Amino acid sequence: MSTEAEYLIYGFLFSTVISTAVMYILINCIAWKYYLKMVQKNAKPLTVPLGIAERALYTTGFLIGLPEIISIWLALKVAVRWSVWNHKNRRNTYNLFLIGNALSVLLSYLGASIAAQEFLTFHNNSR
Question: Which residues of the chain, if any, have pLDDT below 50?
Answer without folding.
Answer: 127
